[in-house]
Design brief:
The longest helix has 22 residues. Helix content is 36%, strand content 10%. A hairpin with a 2-residue loop joins strand 2 and strand 3. It is of the alpha/beta class and 376 residues long. It is built from ten helices and nine strands. The strands form three sheets. A four-stranded parallel beta sheet has the order 1-4-8-9, sandwiched between helices. A three-stranded antiparallel beta sheet has the order 6-5-7, covered by helices on one side. It starts with 12 loop residues before the first helix and ends in a 33-residue tail after the last helix.
Length: 376
Amino acid sequence: MHPYQTLDEQFFWATAVAQRSMFDIDRLWEPKFNIGKQAKVVTFGSCFAQHIGQALRSRGFNWHIAEPGPAGLSPQNAKKYNYGLFSARTGNIYTVSLLEQWVNWATGIRPMPNEIWQRDGRFYDPFRPNVEPNGFTSENELLASREAVLEAFKECILESRVFIFTLGLTESWINSKSGDEYPMCPGTVAGEFDGVRHRFVNQTFPFIRKTLSEVVVRIRELNPKIKFLLTVSPVPLTATMSGRHVLVATMESKSILRAVAGSIRDEFKDVDYFPSYEIINAPPFKGAFFEPNQRNVNHVGVAHVMNMFFTCLETTFSHEASQVKPSPGLATSRSHQHLAKISTPGGGQENQPANPENDVVCEEAILEAFSEKESL
């Protein structure tokens, strides 16, 4: 007799993976805590985090938007000006050090820098370079917007019950003089690049882990009831400054982030990890959830990830199960049909109509414009 003889089938590759259809692989997540429908949930992070918020809202959960935007703003313009993408108008927060920076600013540990970029008479926020695609009309308008987002982010920290954060990148750009981190390399979205003042840093596992641990502790000091759910974005890097091939750089970056997320989950009882990264990238799924550019996640992949999320919650906490999500069988069948349709000859994904609900705003994708060779 040995311990492996008593293990459930989910712990063996043959029975849990190899002998199943990719859509029948289940029980990938056993959540530590439930997410009640009335609990305020906030979402921040990289581009893929936007899908989580939209899915929560569509199923009747309390996805909290602390900065909803002006009254009467159309959905198209709200998205264009970065309202309702995350719980506050921070833009993408790709690294845990950027998250720490926002926490420090919002809670008064450090003042937000007074750095402002100008171009053609318009004003740009270096730490949210794309929230106003055409820039602010004045410095005062920009500073007022900063005050609003800091108040909204502080509200998210103090009032939410679940803080969902999607880790996206290890690569970062720092102001060498001030130590402040930018979400994008200066000069790409706005501003001008200075080789002396702007420094590239590819963050390491020890640094990221230490920073994220400190962020969790700091937020819980302000809001002891809060819980954290971490995910890792499955979206590959658009470009890399690491000096390594972008594919190798992507795998290294995501591996570090995944290891950090798992380590922090194991350290804190109120921190959990959901495997969206694995669901999209693991070998059994055969890359079927990517668009032809092998970077963007298609609508089938997004639906499968979110169906897994809510199914696992329901399975674990059936006494508070959601009544609005599709049944697992129906979701699986529809995913099969969609995947078959987009995989058949002549029915390629590029011919599929766009799904506006699954469109995300991703500042990093702007880097594609600087490639010497455009993708066909």
